[in-house]
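Lesson 9: reading folded outputs for more than one chain in a single document. The general rule is that every protein is listed as its sequence immediately followed by its structure tokens, and records are never interleaved. Here is the first one.
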Amino acid sequence: MRSGWWNGTWLVARRALAEGLASRSWRVVTGLMLLAGLAVVVVPRLLGEEATTYRLAVVGEAPEALTRQLDAAGRAADFQVRVLARSDAAAVEATVRDGDADVGLAGSGQGTTVYVGPDRAGPFPSIVAGAVTAGRTAQALVDAGLTPQQIATVQGTEPPRQVVVGRVDDRARAGVGFAVGIVLYIALLITGIGIATTVATEKATRVSEVLLSVLRPSQLLVGTVVGAGLLSLLQIAALAVPAGGSLLLSHRSDVPASAAPDIALAVLWFLLGLAVYAFVFAALAALVDKVTEVNGAIVPVQMLLIGAYLIAVVVTISSPTSPVSVAASLFPLTSPIVMPVRWASGLVPVWQLVASMVLAVATAVLLARFASLVYRRGVVRTGQRVKLREVLGREHAPSPGLVRPTRGQGSGRV
């Protein structure tokens, strides 16, 4: 396209951006998203300052060898152990049953018993059992006549190498994918509603007719979409930058390093989703006559977004390789929300990601051409709500007083 077309389009985008930045509602929403981003950083630190503490009930004093092994395990896994002394095995069992201790230990040798609460206290029962077994093994080796050096050699034997051949159970990364799906859904929905409202307002106030006297319909359509997209990117940045910066600077983040590409990919999918949905929002809004009719006009696109969101958070999170998840991640009208969530599972072949993106780009181009046709014919018709089949049937005459831009126009001031 000629530079004049882009110049006129950028003028429209800059105008939409300036009006959005000046809007009180936009600034309030952006401020709330910034606070949410800061809360993601601050709240976990406030709630998670203390290390996990497990309570171990024992008869009398805990053996020194046991406490040494538990302390070593605690330093490695970032937890602490508080030992509760009890008079006998019955008292130990009662302490665990009443919930005052997570694990109880009574007896010695072959008669050792480990009492576990109903919630099983995570991995701690297995850690205690392993420490007890290791102590008994060391004592057996001493009784067999081995020297301390020989015992250290036996206990220092490295375990076999583990190779994961199934699904990687990375709950932290899956949690990031879940959050990405929610943010994408909200961002695309808010952006689409904003675009539709802008188009309907300009049509109802006849501003679009004034703009179309010096601009082409495609310039007005694309410029509006670009301006609204930039406003949404600023809001997403307000939410993501504080959290992302904390992840980069923090050494104790619960978010795995493998999730960083997922977050970057989410931004790309937002742009692809914006290209797919935004033009349809604008085209449907061009059919209404009053701003109050916008909500009803864009219901089909909203239902499509809601359907994609439900598939992502209900089906894909729990079963990323199911036929429904695979199909929805490849289908261009649902892939902008489903594929980022599915990709976070770590089970998506690269070719499926590439194919999904290519299909989304191709669909965005086709929808942009379709939306441009609907927008060009619908935005000039005022006085009543226009039906989609009417604008697709044939070219309609412009409304009275509307001047179509000539072939050489398209770069005037907005």
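And here is the second record, again sequence then tokens.
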Amino acid sequence: MIRDSKTFALAQFIDDALINILCERTDLRAFIDFLSTFGSVLVFGGFVRDCIHNCVHGREQDYRDLDLVINGTFASNKQASKNHFGGYRRFFSDGLKVDFWELSQTYAFRVSLFAPSLSNLPLTTVYSINACAFELQTKRLYEHTAVESIQQRTIRFNCKKYLNLFPLYQAFRGIDFANRLGYSLDPDVEGFIRSTLSTASCSEFVDAVKQHRNDQSADQLEHLYYTYSARVRVV
């Protein structure tokens, strides 16, 4: 966690964005209040990343979902389904997706890559732009090279120790982040993407991504595959 004036300004920006959302979303506010009864709640990854992006670059990157981490233990939620990483997923009436899980159940903690702690949470993400978390109660920003990567508009690796878990989906994520945010790919990331796609068929890539992202059409994914795999498309 860093505490300089720039980080304080980023934390304030994130807090203001959350206040604006929760003022309009009483259903989401009630759900977060419920989770808070089990421990402090952190907004992790994508939403925090997009807030930092908006603050640094003066742009409006809309949030699509929320990842919430609870520093405590809670009973399973009957209104939620399991997600791919062992946590829970809840959809709200307007389609908003919220993934939530206990801090200790973060995948990289469960497989003993890092000791479970708030300060280690940013170390657990595959990509550095997502290595950021905002604690709602204390209004503290925890980050590990996320701000630097966002400032430099570069998709870099953060934790590579579980790239073998859903590698085709991780390759897609790197491409998707770069395209959506207008960032460049670090050579190490680009090499991983190309080598991963070159060992899979187009249909395998499409199927792997759609297990996680049904919003992506087959045509979109086929275009990405042939763009980055260096394979020739047969028409």
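What the second record shows: The longest strand covers residues 65-72.
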